[in-house]
Amino acid sequence: MESTYFRKGFGLKTEVEALLSADYSGRLVDLLREHDYTLAAGGVTVRLAHEFGFCYGVERAVDYAYQTRRKFPDRRVVLLGEIIHNPHVNDKLRQMGVDILVAEGAGFDYTRISPDDVVIIPAFGVTIGDFERLRAIGCVLVDTTCGSVLNVWKRVESYARDGFTSLIHGKHYHEETRATASQALKYPGGAYLVVRDMAEARMVCDYIEGRGDRDAFVARFAATSSDGFDPDVHLARVGVANQTTMLARESLDIAAEVGAAMERAHGAEYRAANFRSFDTICSATQDRQDAVKALLAEPLDVMLVVGGYNSSNTMSLAALCAEHVPTYHVEDPAAIDVERGTVRYRPVGKVTEEREADGWLPEGPVRVGLTAGASTPNNKIGETVARVFATRGVSALEPTER
């Protein structure tokens, strides 16, 4: 019987390697590495954070998608949503003949998928319900779910098995968080509550300590909690987890606040028995955040963060940078208009707004910091560097100044 579920590729890595390199590698990024992550010319110095761009999970997902197209050249290949949150990568897959199924309203329209199709599950994973629907259809499934995401799922599943509510620090609408939350429902009585930030976490703490109104609480978190969520019942035993791409510092602070609230309300012994916490930020997210912190310790005049506007880890990097230096989150190198000297960017904390700034690159000698989200390919990082220098009328390939 033909296998219909694949998680480890098809042994075609060497066959797609050249194509992946041609599509996503960047000469300027290589040059930056060769010069201690620094290029300087025409009074402009660009410093690249030491950790940036594609992480292992993203590389794996994109590699498997390319392998899938090679393995099934004559079959319809469907991708459930975006493979990762980068428009260039998703556009490249479309050009390769991969159909991207966009979620509508409550979810995907599975009537558009047949048993003859090959369906790619993205790096974020899918909900248990989505997975069961796909298995019932009988199509071939290529599962590229990131290993770091799977680790969170195991943690949330263990919370549900042991009678703990999963308190998830994340964006409730994000594909990964939706998939993670569904793991809490594997066992009878399983429950979850998603909090976006410390402000929402403090509402949870207030309720635990007896300062909340039940009806107001239920209404406030109706869209971000499991069906039938009852704070009087489900906040008695709590296990904290998080979307892997959130700001690590905030996730840890939220866990500490909730644990302290339970101890204040019920005592240390109760907390020890009824509160669990586990840092589920992935190592790649943490490494990129740590590298940005190291870069910010140096004198910088401006910071560029390159990555999809809907990329959570990119937004976290931009938020870190904006605390220290004027920061521009750009989705695409073309956001830097060399001729007009402007930049289009997404302000930190704005979900839908895009702005344009004049004179974003200060006159005179200037130091520009640069980093990129875990779903940003090297060629787009390199193109961004080239446009920074071109704004001053110089080439990034000129000998670096020392």
Automatic annotation (TrEMBL):
Task: Write down what this protein is called.
Answer: Hydroxymethylbutenyl pyrophosphate reductase
Q: In which pathway does it act?
A: Isoprenoid biosynthesis; isopentenyl diphosphate biosynthesis via DXP pathway; isopentenyl diphosphate from 1-deoxy-D-xylulose 5-phosphate: step 6/6; Isoprenoid biosynthesis; dimethylallyl diphosphate biosynthesis; dimethylallyl diphosphate from (2E)-4-hydroxy-3-methylbutenyl diphosphate: step 1/1
Under Gene Ontology molecular function, one entry of this record is: metal ion binding
BP term (GO), one: dimethylallyl diphosphate biosynthetic process
Q: Which Gene3D superfamilies match?
A: 3.40.50.11270, 4-hydroxy-3-methylbut-2-enyl diphosphate reductase, catalytic domain
Q: Which organism is it from?
A: Gemmatirosa kalamazoonensis
Which cofactors, if any, are listed as required?
A: [4Fe-4S] cluster
Keywords in UniProt for this one? 4Fe-4S, Iron, Iron-sulfur, Metal-binding, Oxidoreductase
